[in-house]
Amino acid sequence: MSFSRSARKRALLPLGTFGFVALAAAGTCHPAVAKAHHKPVPAAARRKAAPKTQAKPHDLMATHDENVSVSAHRAVQGGGLMTRQTEAKSVSMVTQDYIAKQSPLVNPGVLVSSLPGVQGTNEGPLSTTSETVHIRGLDQTQIGMVYEGMPLADPFTYSAYTSAMVDNEDLANVAVSQGSSDLTAPTYNADGAQMTMSLRHPGARFAAYAEGSGGTHSSNKEFVRIDTGEIGHSGVTSFVSGSYSSGNLWRGPGSLYRWHLDAAVEKHWTPKSSSELIFGYNYANQTEWLYPNLAQWRQYGTSYNTHGQYTPGDTLYYKLNTKATNAVVGTLKNHFDLGDGFALDAQPYAVETYGPNNYGANIPITNGYRGTEQYAVLDGYTPAKGSVTAISIHPWVQTSSGLNLIGSWHRGINTLKFSYWYSYAVHTEFQNHYAVNAQGQYTQNNGYLTVGGKAITQYDINGFQQLNALGLEDQIKLFHDRLTIDAGLRANMISRSFTEDLPGAQPYKSVKNMFIPAPQVLISYQLTSDNQIYINGTTGYRAPSSFQAQVPVYTFTTPVPVTQPLANFTPEYMIGEEIGFRHYGPVMATISGFNYNLTHHQISSVSYIPGTSILTSQPIDAGGESAMGIQAELSTRPWHHLSAYASGQYMHTKIGNNIAYMGDVLPTKGKQEVASPKFLGALGLTYDDGTTFGNFNLRYSDSQYSTLMNDQSIPAYFTADASIGRWLPRFGRVRPKAMVSLMNIGDVHYLSSITGFTPTAAASIKGMGGKTLVGSQPAYAVGTGFAAIATVSASFE
User: Fold this and answer.
1) How far is Cα 766 from Cα 52, in angstroms, rounded to an integer?
2) Residue 711: left if φ>0, alpha if ψ -120 to 50, beta else—which one?
3) Hey, what's the signal peptide range on this chain (predicted)?
4) How far apart are CA 119 and CA 780, in angstroms?
5) Fewer CB atoms < 10 Å away: N or C end of the chain?
6) Among 49, 111, 59, 52, which Cα is nearest to 86's?
7) Residue 26: enclosing H or E segment and its boundaries?
8) Could you give the 3-state DSSP secondary structure of residue 7?
9) Backbone φ, ψ for residue 668 (5° rounding)
10) Could you tell me whether strands 387-394 and 92-95 are parallel, antiparallel, or unpaired per DSSP bridges?
């Protein structure tokens, strides 16, 4: 099975077709309940506007976030690291006030890394690839990533490409729900937390903003944004922004670059009905990082990198190892007020991401394998011993599109919601190998390596997925809106199919169908205007990730697959509970206790395919897991322009069963779960007097295991970042600003996270059945070294 470009175009049709229908229909809508948002409304709409209702932090598609002017000075609590929340679950948020004081080169995962329970790491001062984020011990593949109502994660591997979706300067806020995802969120992998990125929508007045940054490792970024303001009295506002960033890798040879574009056009049909078209484009490439095991880290430290000079047979030559992160995203968000308490949110969207990713590979000239089929000699070569060194180019591409509908009816103390989400995704990935010369150079004009006229490859994957999700939610408010009870159920139906088009592949085709119900109950009580308690019971799921869960991957040297599909293809499923308290005042404080149970926890054992620099993952069903803990955060209002923030989490985890491994069983029951530090903490200080400002953040992560047997771990570490800046004298309508950001102030060399888990790292271990088992080494990500970034910007209003 294969998918042509025309098939991928068909996957994009819901965005365009439904978009034009929605825009045409919007003109017939009647005002009833005001659209919940806090951003400036165009003048034509303001003249008729009724009082607005307060929005929930995560109301999908109906919520617009505050469009904060970068030159405005307000008394922000906790330096923008904490905001007032009302939902009956733990929610933390960073706002544009905080984002604007950070290096413009970091990714959104790092922006939320001071929030309770969150570990967000950067592999460099500037990175264009997917990032590593952990929340309450769950990694980015288990976290729902949402940007303006669109799913951010790769629909099959769940890799998070947040830096490809939006520039930091265009973010209004980034919110984290540590324990559960929203019932109406378009996610298929959020068995735990949800991370939501919200756009700074078009402003009501004309404004322009320009920024230039530069610093260590030749890092630089240029950014420009223009808001048109309301165009005439049409009710239409828009903005467009563009950026270019580049730099050298801070460790090892190589470089990276990124071109990015964001744009939005919004039309207010009435004071309570609007449509907004959002578009994003990203084109990026960088030299690949190498991920050391613990022995390599201890021996080489930050010197374990790709190689700057080519020698024959060297697959780690840096010019052979590059990764592209390209994306085109678009959505049309519509909020229609239908009168008599009825409202409809309708949002079609489409996301296309594509490579290629390039690696090095040594391919046998004779007696190699294509799938399980042995070949005599590569086409164009004479029988000889040895191998051909080649660049392995993976021109992967995938398109996902969907339609999310949420209808609501508000009557008195009750609000009823019905939701429907349809998603369609296709994925294709294969390899073309081009021989390199004695200098490590290649040309595609010579053609890729073949056997019998067919490309030599280790996998040739085609897949598609369809999802239908139906949701029903009812909310009731009692005792003068002090008690809120919200209960709902979402039924998720997923069909996923993959084919492995290599000879002898078993299975050649895998079709899996899943039905996953996800109920939740949220209850909150407002003790006073500034004090709230809440309790909830939620569920979440994650469909098994990556094509390796369904079809095998092969190597050139043996007919035996290097990865095998999951023997038990069952979604992860989580049941979680929280109880919490919030207090708002000069000192804001929240505290919550949580517990969750996870079944069929799937981890990925990552390793390099023999003879190549290609990472592949073997999915492992690690069985059950339970966790309980407590998290808290605290912030203060500015006192003499200084505000403080602190967060912390304690968590205890436990593996619920022994794990089958290599024909035996490992005694893992009762061990601590991987990537689940017992303690996390952060401190933040912010100074801002309207002219001079500064920000300091200190973060701590406890040690964490990387194997299910708890026989290998990475040490605890501290990191600290700081920024200091000043608004320069205004001239005319232009106000300039200068800022210096320091990342990893102590230049701590540390392993920041685990990229590939294993059951055991022991060279030899006895299974419970008496069999001698051999372990494998986990792989680790290296945290960024010290970097200094200077930024000069100016706003024109």
Assistant:
1) 66
2) alpha
3) 1-24
4) 15
5) N
6) 59
7) helix 13-26
8) helix
9) -95, -10
10) unpaired
Query: Does position 2 have pLDDT exceeding 70, yes or no?
Result: no
> Are the beta carbons of 540 and 519 closer than 8 angstroms?
no
- Name the band, by pLDDT with cuts 50, 70 and 90, for residue 163: confident
- Structure-block tokens of residue 1: 């099975």
Q: What is the pLDDT of residues 113-130, one digit of tens each?
A: 999 999 988 888 887 776
DSSP string for 453-509: TEE--S--EEEEEEEEEEEEEEEEEETTTTEEEEEEEEEEEEEEEEEE-STT-SSSE
| Dist. CA 492–CA 333, nearest whole Å | 23
What pLDDT is recorded for position 687? 97
**To the nearest 10°, the Cα dihedral for 182, 183, 184, 189?**
70
C-alpha 292/C-alpha 750 separation (Å) is 12
- CA dist., res. 433 & res. 457, Å (int): 8
Given a contact cutoff of 8 angstroms between Cβ atoms, the answer to whether 694 and 721 are in contact is no
Residue 75's pLDDT is 59
Whether pLDDT at 67 is above 70: no
CA dist 27 to 41, 196, 230, 272, 337, Å?
18, 30, 18, 12, 11
pLDDT digits (tens, 9 = 90+) for 576-625: 999 999 999 999 999 999 999 999 998 877 778 888 888 888 788 888 99
Look at residues 362, 417, 416, 358 and name the one whose alpha carbon lies nearest to residue 386.
362
Residue 728 gets which letter from DSSP?
Answer: P
Q: Write the burial class of residue 480 (CB in 10 Å: 0-12 exposed, 13-18 middle, 19+ buried).
A: exposed
The whole-number pLDDT of residue 132 equals 82
The residue type found at 526 is Q
Q: How far apart are CA 79 and CA 96, in angstroms?
A: 10
CA neighbor of 161 nearest in space, from 177, 176, 140 = 140
Share of the chain above pLDDT 70, in %: 90
**pLDDT above 90: residue 427:** yes
Strands (E), 228-341: 236-248, 255-270, 273-287, 322-324, 326-339
How far apart CA 175 and CA 56 sit, in angstroms, is 12
Given a contact cutoff of 8 angstroms between Cβ atoms, the answer to whether 127 and 163 are in contact is yes
Question: How many Cβ atoms sit within 10 Å of the Cβ of residue 220?
Answer: 18
pLDDT at position 74 is 54
State the Cα–Cα distance between residues 152 and 597, nearest whole angstrom: 25
Tell me the average pLDDT across 283-299. 94
Q: Is 376:451 a contact under the CB 8 Å cutoff? A: no
* Lowest mean per-residue pLDDT among 52-56, 163-167, 242-246, 370-374: 52-56
Q: What is the pTM of this model?
A: 0.88
- The helix/strand/coil state of 267 is strand
User: Among all chains, which residue has been given the structure tokens 């006895």?
Assistant: 766
Question: Model confidence over 166-217: pLDDT tens digits?
Answer: 999 999 999 999 999 999 999 989 988 999 999 999 999 999 999 999 999 9
For the record, the structure tokens of 348 come out as 């079609």
How confident is the model at residue 619, as a pLDDT?
A: 83
CB 530 within 8 A of CB 583: yes
Pairing, β 717-727 against β 615-621: unpaired
Other CB atoms within a 10 A radius of the CB of residue 470 amount to: 13
Burial class (CB in 10 A: 0-12, 13-18, 19+), 393: buried
Contact partners, residue 436, CB within 8 Å, separation at least 6: 310, 320, 389, 390, 391, 442
- What mean pLDDT comes out for the span 733-756? 94
Residue 529 CB contacts under 8 Å (≥ 6 apart), including other chains: none
- Contact between residue 164 and residue 214 where contact means Cβ atoms under 8 Å apart: no
Amino acid at 755: T
For the residues 6-32, what does the mean pLDDT come to? 40
